[in-house]
Amino acid sequence: MTRPTQATINLQALRHNTAHARTLAGTARLLAVVKANAYGHGASQVAVAIAEQVDAFGVACLEEALQLRAAGITRPILLMEGVFEAQELDNAAREQLWPAITNEQQLAWLEQAQLSAPLQVWLKVNTGMNRLGIAPAQVTAFLQRIYDCPQVIDHSVAPVVVFTHLSSADNLHSDATLQQLKQFAELPLAGAAVARSAANSGGLLQWPASHYDWVRPGYMLYGNSPLDAAHSNTAALKPVMTLTSRIIALRNIEAGEAVGYGGTFVAQRPTTIACVAIGYGDGYPRQAVNGTPVLVNGQRAALAGRVSMDMLMIDVTGIANVALGTPVVLWGDGLPVDEVARYAGTVGYELLTRLPARPPRVVVED
Ligand SMILES: *Cc1c(COP(=O)(O)O)cnc(C)c1O
């Protein structure tokens, strides 16, 4: 294959970020979230690379868990949304997965199941996200039923983990997180044999009160900050994915000439336009506007005109040593994906998880 477009996955950066998460977690255990193909990075490779550094993995569904087992991962795997059908509990028992219990139906399925081995479960409580989870007032009754359930591992061996999800941990100044943590702290768990978990990346990075017994970072492991403001805990993060391509055409145009579909970029001065071999068919967002930054020879250049399916154009006027074949960084090392995402009206999470298979993932050790 000779098309020069690829996503480089840097395992040294991944391990570095995981170690950083481990340090921030203190004595809490670390569950690495690798759902959605490890946020587009390649779930099997990511999980194998950090398995020794983490206590468990978190995924969105059985299929994602089985992919990790097929890759040789032996750590516990949490099904963070629980199972979608009762039969999945058989797979969970066989593969030692931890299903979340997020509602009455999932608990009833567990109570009625005949399993080859008892399961460890997590109990999801809604503290204000209003997505998944039982109401705080239901916790006592659910815990009692879970403890009474022969399909659940005895709580003296492994406690149920009561967990919640924060809606606004990226924002240090919103009251929502304080209110959620207050609700969570006030759950009637006194004397119950439970562990607790509340922190996603935002919680781990800037809400120590959310750390409890298990932290569940995803995004930060991939070297990106979910926070809406600079923070000392994010400075050490290193981007794991760097999306690159190369210049495949160069031309000089006059003031007044337009570039690309619809002619949405019009040169204001004599301008050097480079064409780069990457487009929305490779996961680069078509919504990115004129001026979206890219890196050429370590310098910032700007997107010029609409992104095509296989190509995009950039204004490289005044940038030294630009030639056919010059590498271009679309995001990653030196250019945070979140910065690019802002120009496309979205977040880095979406750009990473929507990266299609078309650009090959090239795994490097550092
Ligand atoms: C996705 C997810 C996480 C990880 O969130 P990040 O913002 O990527 O750290 C943690 N817990 C649950 C339940 C999730 O769905």
The strand line-up of the biggest sheet is 2-3-4-5-6-7-8-9
Distance between the termini: 23 Å
- What is the 3D shape? elongated
Q: Helicity range of the residues?
A: 25-40%
The biggest beta sheet is recorded as:
8 strands, parallel, barrel
Determine the strand fraction and express it as a percent band: 15-25%
| Low-pLDDT ranges | none
Give the ordered list of helices and strands. EHEHHEHEHEHEHEHEHEEEEEEEEEHHE
User: Any ligands, ions or cofactors bound here, and which?
Assistant: pyridoxal-5'-phosphate
Using only C-alpha atoms, the radius of gyration works out to 23 Å
- Structural class comes to alpha/beta
Count of strand segments = 18
Q: Supply the number of helical segments.
A: 11
Q: Provide the residue-averaged pLDDT.
A: 97
Structure report:
With 366 residues, the chain is α/β, with parallel strands linked by helices. Helix content is 25%, strand content 22%. It is built from eleven helices and 18 strands. The chain has helices at residues 11-25, 35-39, 43-50, 62-70, 88-94, 104-112, 139-148, 175-185, 201-206, 337-343, 348-353, and strands spanning 6-10, 29-33, 56-59, 77-79, 97-101, 122-124, 160-163, 194-199, 214-215, 241-253, 258-259, 265-266, 271-276, 293-296, 299-303, 312-315, 327-331, 361-364. The strands form three sheets. The chain has an eight-stranded parallel beta barrel with strand order 2-3-4-5-6-7-8-9, surrounded by five helices. The mean pLDDT is 97. The site of pyridoxal-5'-phosphate has 11 residues, from loops.
